Automatic annotation (TrEMBL):
SUPFAM superfamilies linked to this entry: Plant invertase/pectin methylesterase inhibitor
Residue ranges annotated for the Pectinesterase inhibitor domain, each copy included: 33-183
UniProt keyword Cell membrane present: no
Name of this protein: Pectinesterase inhibitor 5
Family: Belongs to the PMEI family.
CDD domains: PMEI
Gene3D superfamilies according to UniProt: Invertase/pectin methylesterase inhibitor family protein
A Pfam family that the UniProt record links to this protein: PMEI
Origin: domain of life: Eukaryota
Residues making up the signal peptide according to the UniProt record: 1-33
NCBIfam families recorded: PME_inhib (TIGR01614)
Keywords: Disulfide bond, Signal
Length: 191
């Protein structure tokens, strides 16, 4: 009887080991497949490195399909916009107290308004993507990216011409919008 119990125990251990091995192989296969998906998306982006670090920097990307990558890329864009709107622009405004140039003060306030609009648009894109309304996502993302472009451009339209103090952030929002549009375009070709 002891021998039978021992054999049953060995069988159970071997079965568990096989199940764990099988699950590990599935996990590895899914990760490789999803890494290839992110890679195929990022190869279409203007900046492969930016796209890859953005998507691969989010742990959810490992298990995401195209719909998941759409949600993730929109969420990353919203996070970037929130940092600029909630932290970066108010910091610039606080430091501009000593600046007497009314044009610069107005420009950063316009950017603040632009980023408020961008946030509204990307939240709309998130809702539309969650509902799989991908054509709406395109409209929301286009309008949201245009807000960042406007913020960038107002520093170049009139004298004194200068560089926007949040130029890097504007370009990041534009690159993030590009990622969203690449993912959504891929979704529309399979729908």
């Amino acid at each position: 009887m002891q021998c039978l119990n021992m054999a049953g125990h060995q069988f159970a251990v071997q079965s568990c080991a096989l199940i764990i091995l099988y699950m590990s192989l599935l996990e590895l296969h899914a990760t490789v497949a999803d890494t290839q998906l992110v890679d195929s998306i990022c190869k279409q982006a203007e900046s492969y490195e930016f796209c890859s670090s953005t998507l691969n920097g989010d742990l959810r990307s490992e298990r995401a399909d195209l719909h998941g990558l759409a949600i993730i890329s929109i969420a990353e864009t919203i996070a970037q916009i929130r940092v600029v709107f909630d932290e970066r622009i108010p910091e610039i405004i606080r430091h501009q107290v000593s600046i007497s140039n009314p044009i610069d003060k107005q420009r950063i306030k316009d950017c603040q308004s632009d980023y408020n609009g961008a946030l509204h648009n990307f939240l709309g894109a998130y809702r539309s993507s969650s509902g799989r309304s991908y054509w709406e996502v395109i409209d929301w993302v286009r309008d949201g990216a245009n807000e960042a472009i406007h913020c960038e451009d107002i520093y170049r339209w009139h004298d004194p011409l200068t560089v926007c103090p949040i130029s890097a952030e504007n370009h990041n929002v534009i690159k993030l919008a590009e990622i969203v549009l690449i993912v959504v375009q891929s979704l529309l070709t399979i729908v």
